[in-house]
Amino acid sequence: MTSRPCKIAVAGTHSTGKTTFLRRLEDELARRGFSPRYVHDSAVNARDLGFPILRDHTFESTAWIMAEAIRLETVASLSADVILVDRPLPDALGYLVAALEVTGRSLTPGRLERLEAICTGWMGEYDLTFVTQLDRDIPIGPGRDDDHEFRIAAGLAVSSILSRVAPHAKVLGAQDADEALALAISFAERHRGGA
What we know:
- The structure is a single chain.
- The chain is 52% helix and 12% strand.
- By secondary structure, it is an alpha/beta fold.
- Strands 2-3-1-4-5 form a 5-stranded parallel β-sheet, with helices on both faces.
- Helix 1 packs across helix 7.
- It starts with 5 loop residues before the first strand and ends with a helix.
């Protein structure tokens, strides 16, 4: 049986500390002799191709983002022993659910369920999943979408989806970062040791 990289994912709405946490984890893993690979959100690439995102997400933009995330994670497995996923598949689905909610749109029956089935199937690839919590007192980062209604709806939708497809996801709050970092390093070290 061939070994596979350890995969650690962080989900949640934007400007909740995902990237900051994962970059810190990446540095610490590299310092400990790992070969980590950071895989980022593909929404900007989707937008650059012409897909609508954020409040305007569609089934097609979500399917593309999910497929691109799977591709990027799979390519990372060629060179990494730890893959750090900034926005796993449930994020894309959560953003679609939020977009439909805040705009009053709906999808043809069955389409949302098919996307959730993909999320459910892929979640088994993650060894450890965190979900960030929105702290409304922390300002949105520069250059980020500042639609507060949508940001809140996306956070709630991502959390709701994760409660179904990854009920053991760990909450990652600003005050929990050190504890979460230690947990993630422990997971990676156990994986490397074959435990």
